[in-house]
Structures are given as C-alpha cells and as structure tokens.
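User: I'm new to structure prediction. If I give you an amino acid sequence, what do you actually give back? Let's try with this one:
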Amino acid sequence: MNHTERLSVLPRLAVALVAALGFASSSVAQMYDAGVACAFPVQFDLGEGHSLNVREFVDRNGNPIRFMVTGALPTLTVTNLENNQSLTLKSKGQQQTFRANADGSTTYSISGNTVLTWFPTDDPPGPNTIAYVGHIVVNIDQNFVWTLVKSSGKELDLCALLE
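Assistant: Good question. You get back a string of structure tokens that encode the predicted 3D arrangement of the chain. For your 163 residues, that looks like this:
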C-alpha cells in the first residue's frame, strides 16, 4: 500500500486530521477489497459533521512536534459488501495525540472511542478492523507500518461481527 492509500484509510490517521481541519462537512465513503480492512470487501461511510478541536505544539524553532485532537467524529457505518450487513457506530468523544519522534516515526495515542484498521503489514497483522473504547498507543514508522504498543479497555472486532 503506498503513502497516499495508507493515509486515506477512514478509521485511521487521515480521518482524524481531515475531519479536524474541517473538511469532513459532508459524508465520505471509502471501499476496500477483501484482505485489506477485513477478509471480505468492506465499505466505511463517515457521516456529516464533527465536533473536533485541534491544537498544534511546536518546538522553539516553530517546527510541529505534536498535534492534539479532541472531540467527537461523525458516525461511522461499516458494511460487509458480500452480505450487506452493516454496523453504525456513534463517536462519544476522544482525545488523539500525534507526536513526532527523532527516528522519523510518529507515536499516536488515542483515549476514548475510536476505530482502527490493521493491514497485513501491521503488528498485529490484519486484515482487521477493531472498535476500541479505552486507551491505545500505536507507533507509525516511516513506511506507515503501524505497531500496537499498548491497549487497555474494551475491543470489538467489527470484521467478525459482520461476517
């Protein structure tokens, strides 16, 4: 998966940043082939509206070193395109922090409700899409490979529920 495709995955980093910057004023849909986000083809539909706030933190030279996003994303509907079963999740709020690391990686911390998609190249390897309620820390390397550092709270396997 190339850089552009990687950042376009709705439940991931791009959604938070795009929505936070105010570009998610209309609904957005993204489809993925079998083996990418789930074992079956899946569609993510992000509803309209959000209540997100973004704060950027910079070093003494003005370089961004951390972003904090707080608030609630729009509803997310996940649909299995083989059997048309779907789940709709309403965001109840979250805090996300993106911190740049010296080695070029990013530490992504999420507290609250979120949905993450794990690709086959990630650790843990996907394809899988998980709804989390609690706290998650992920390291994102220079190749956009995601590694779960820690997770506490509840996890819900959306792919298993939609099979």
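You can read the tokens as a compact description of the fold. Here is one thing that stands out. The chain has three helices and ten strands.
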